[in-house]
Each structure stands twice: as structure tokens, then as C-alpha cells.
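Allow me, if you will, to draw on your knowledge of protein folds for a short while. Thank you for your consideration; the sequence and its C-alpha cells are set out here:
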Amino acid sequence: MRNDRYAHEVNYKWYPFTQMKDLDTRGPVVIVEGEGVYVKDDKGKTYIDGQGGLWNVNIGHRREEVIQAIIQQLQKLEYFSHFGGFGNQPSTALAMKLIEMTRPEGMGKVFFTNGGSEAVETALKIARQYWRLQGKAGKYKIIARRKAYHGVSLGGLSANGVTAYRKMFEPLVPGFRHISPPYCYRCELKMTYPGCGVACADTLQQMIDFEGKDTVAAFIAEPVMGAGGVIIPPKEYLPKVQEICRKNEILFIADEVITGFGRTGEMFAVRHGPIQPDILVVAKGINSGYIPLGATLVSDEIYNAFLGELKEGKDFKHGFTYSGHPVACAAGVANLAVLEKENLVENSRKMGAYLLEGLKSLEKHRIVGDVNGLGLLARVELVKDKTTREPFPFDQFIALRTAQKIMDHGVILRPLPGDVISFSPPLIIQREQIEQIVDAVDKGISDIEEEL
């Protein structure tokens, strides 16, 4: 066991997505303060939070509006169960606000969860029960995409398309299928956009034909694929897959856990389509991570299928102890008020364009391959050979090492599978801070290139 200032960090805790032996060697970075786009560690060093917590601190750290909403709610009611028909005022207020915000998407009801994984799990169960209630119990299969990330609970993990996240937990839940992602830089179909005609969308129809449309309940997709590498689809992709879903009577689940609430320069990323999903999954930016919260929104058509007499057994036998938690929902109401008051969706669009412009300048580096972004969600993919797009060997951990170098220069960013550095800073960020991010990344990549 360690016997230093970080002994309590590694001797007693098991960190998520972390090789603890490696962490024991290098030691953790202990964050003790945050304000705006900045965080500070226990050694007194300040960083720009270029990953926005974990894609979620949309309005920035330590916002007094949200803190006060939490305190005031704690002083009235800290918790009561939503089971059995008990409600609370903050969850009602937040549900009303979410339905108002998603009117263009046609959402009618909100089911609260504690985060994104649970919200996805809820959506998958709703889809399966919906078709059973329609007398079509055979429609139970879920089609997802390779490189997709839909959480780590067993249902969401079964939809997950990142092999590294799946393989240690197999066998997973049956009935899940995967198709090609809209990954133009590394197209599985060996085609080139736009001449391809967005053929990756056609793989959905091909899978439906192979499985039989009477066996498929839903297609689940992130409008922009997040943890799988910040993969941004061609503009024609979402409308095309929605058309395929409608034609085959298959529900479309839009996973907006990362992309919702302004991250891509629209309030919801489905508006880049635009499309109208049957089920909309949100979390993260719903209250900027101040307290765990997520939600699954459904159309009235979906919801109405679950209505009936008690004896019919149509009710949704699903929920969580902390569903509709009053303090989390109070934080959500305050968070969305800040988001709208400060016009942060528009700031995401403007600052995202400025960030992408800056990141494009990094293409001068010999290891920088693809650079892309949408709003304040962006990627830089590192490659061994720019001409052939040959990736680095996995065991070189280039993205991880580069992110560590960038952190030495004062910016925290997240490395992803496939040697991608991802960017998702708070939506309050301004030009000067973006310039600091780009400068730190430039220096970090130069550091790695010198080592190579």
C-alpha cells in the first residue's frame, strides 16, 4: 500500500475506467476546486477544464444559481420516493420545462433516472414493452452501431459498440445487433463521402432485411457518437436512418446523453437533422453534473400504449430509488434557466466554430490525422502515417500520453479509443480560453512528436 500524500486515494478507492496499478505508479490528480471553465488541483495548479467534467459541466463550475437552488431545496425536502405515485415540486417543474424544450421533437412525457446509463436502460425497456403491448412480442431486437457508446449497464453495454468495453462482460443481453458507424475518416465500407450516398445508413436497412422487420423493436443512435471517438455523421445521415425506421415500423431512440442541452450548437443534436425520435435520452448537461440526473423522454404515442386498467398489467414495472430526486431536479431547473438566460447554445455554436478553426491549424503536425467538430464537441485523431491513415500500435497509448502532456501545459482533455483527443469544454468558454486550449494542445503534440 502507498504511504504518501495520495495513499488514501489509491489504497481504498477503485477508480472507473482506470488501471489501478498504473494509477498507483503515477498518482492521481486530485481536483479540489472549480470555477467557470477552470479547476484547481490539491497542489495549487489551475487547469482549463477542456473536457467539461465528463462532457457535462455545460454552464461551468460553481455557479451560484445552481448552488442556491440545491441549498434551498435541501432546506425544504431532501428526498422522497417517486414510487407509488408520490411526486415533488422540482421534478414536476423540470418535467414541464423538458417537455416545453422538446416540443419540436414531439416529446410528451419524462421518466427520470440517475444518469445516462440508466436513461438508456429505461429507453431499451420501454421499446421492448411497447411492442409487446402492441401485440408484437416478437419485435424485441435492438440495432445499434459499432463504436457507439450507450453506457455500461448490461442493456446499454449490449448496445455499446466499443469492443474494449464489451469483451470482459460477455455474454451480454441477447437480441442486440450492430451496423456500420458513419465514420467517414475510417469508412468500414471503403467508400468516400459524398459519392458514397451515405451508404452507412443503408446498412441499417440491410440489417433489418436480414433479421426481419417484425423482429426489430428499435434503432438506437447518438446524433454525434461520443466516447467512441466524437464521430460526426454527414448531414444526410440522420434523416435517412429515420426514414428507414419509419418505413419499417421501428422506434428511433436518440441518445443525447452527451449532445443534449447545447453541446453541438443546437439545444439538441437531432435538430441538425432535423429528425423527430420516438424516444429521447438525456443526462449530463441536464443539470451540468451538479447532482446525478438523467431522463428518458417519449412521445405521447409511446406513453399511451402503457395506459390501462390495473388488472391489465400494462404499467411500466421499472424505476430507481432516486428517480425524480427533488434536489437533482431543482439543480436541473436552475441549470436550464442559466443555459437560456445566457444564450449558451448560441455561444456553443460561435465558440465551437472558433475552436475548430484553431484545431485545424494543428494539422501541421505529422501525427495529426482527422480534425472535426460540431459546436463545442470536437476531436483530433492522432495517426502514425497521415497519408495512409495508419494508426499507432495500441500498446503505445499515444492519445493517453498526449493528453498527459497537454495537462502539463494546463489543459485537461479526454483521450478516447482510437487515439482520439476529445474536446467538450463548458459552454461559457470564450475566445481567449479557446486560444489557450489550442496552444496547450499544440505544445503537447510537439512534446509527443519529439519522443517519437
In short: The domain at 66-341 is CATH 3.40.640.10 (Aspartate Aminotransferase; domain 2). The radius of gyration is 22 Å. The first helix runs from residue 7 to 11.
